[in-house]
Amino acid sequence: MANAPDKPCEIVILVVPQYSQLTLAALVEPLRMANTVADRQLYRWRLCSDDSQEIRSSSGFALAVDADISEVEDFDVLFVVASYDATTYVSANIIAFLRRTSRRRAIIGGFDSAPFLLAEAGLLDGYRATTHWDDLEDLRDRYPRIEVVPERYVIDRGRVTTSGSLPSFDFVLEFIRRQNGLMLAMNVSGNFLYDQARPGSESQYMIATSLINARHPLVSKVIQLMEQTLRAPLSVKQLATSVGVSERSLLRRFRATLEVSPQQYYRALRLDTGRRLLDNSDLSVTEIAIACGFDSRAAFTRAFKQAFGSSPSNHRLMLKNG
Questions:
Q1: 306 and 187: one domain?
Q2: What is the pLDDT of residues 15-63, one digit of tens each?
Q3: How far apart are CA 297 and CA 302, in angstroms?
Q4: Does the N-terminal or the C-terminal CB of the chain have fewer CB atoms within 10 Å?
């Protein structure tokens, strides 16, 4: 993703009706700050639409664009921003533009629900990709040639997909780091008082307990207990007893707070930990299975493939091969 040092990275941002303002800001503001911190124009962007008309966001604000997509050329990166009902706004014009751009070997990114637009144009066939957790199954069912994964953001060769606003912000920091170094990315992050940047591979389902500790201390305490007992998972009854409530009460509190059962959260936590160990350790798949509380390598492999779409061994191989 490196760019020529003496030439600004030219970015076209295609905005689709009902886009999220927060996602657009998460994309543009770090780039603006990078220019400010560097005291030179590292990034230059243009907003465009299908027909050059102003675009309404999901919150009703009007956005004026610089051009329509037939007028833009000579750019390095295309980012597409969409949100609700993204496929409603697919047009032959947009599909043709996306395919032309892919032939130019430009970096192409889909933010929030925009992966659906890239998928409709065939740009994600054979790639790993993500989208918002609420749409993951829909993306997987509609486009079986895509390896859909529940990650915050995915960079796979020249394709980028993100799952929402904050993951988009995290991706742009990584984009800046790859192009212009860690120090600049850190300075950009610091200017927004943002020190919680997360890797793209982190699961969307991980909950920051600090966000729920004040209002739901019991759920937070159970999550911390889960994190401490990954190797030897406790039963729901044992978890409930440890915090002095009934199983039924614990189930009700988890569903009210996190919209999942304790079992579902526990399993997602163990699998996410397994994936991080695959990414960042030299442990064997069998050792990782044991560390995450699975009875055997086979049991871990089945659960991992069901959750992430590939076996642990294939996941590690793809990471190694880039």
A1: no
A2: 999 999 999 999 999 999 999 999 999 999 999 999 888 999 999 999 9
A3: 9
A4: C
pTM, entire model: 0.65
What's the total number of domains in the chain? 2
Distance CA 37, CA 184 (A): 7
SS (H, E, C) 30-85: HHHHHHHHHCCCCEEEEEEECCCCCEEECCCCEECCCEEHHHCCCCCEEEEEECCC
Interatomic CA distance for residues 285 and 297, integer angstroms: 7
CATH code: domain of residue 104: 3.40.50.880
Q: How far is CA 155 from CA 64, 129, 159, 208, in A?
A: 29, 8, 6, 23
Domain that holds residue 136: 9-191
Decide if 76 contacts 9 (C-beta within 8 A). yes
Phi and psi of 191, rounded to 5°? -65, -25
Tell me: do 56 and 186 sit in the same domain.
yes
Q: Cα 100 from chain centroid?
A: 25
Q: Which residues pair with 203 in a beta bridge?
A: 151
Strand blocks (E) in 83-127: 107-112
Query: What are 79-96's pLDDT values in tens digits?
Result: 999 988 888 899 999 999
**CB of 28 closer than 8 Å to CB of 45:** yes
Residue 3 lies in a domain: no
Whole-angstrom CA distances from 295 to 55, 193, 230, 245, 269 are 53, 43, 12, 28, 16
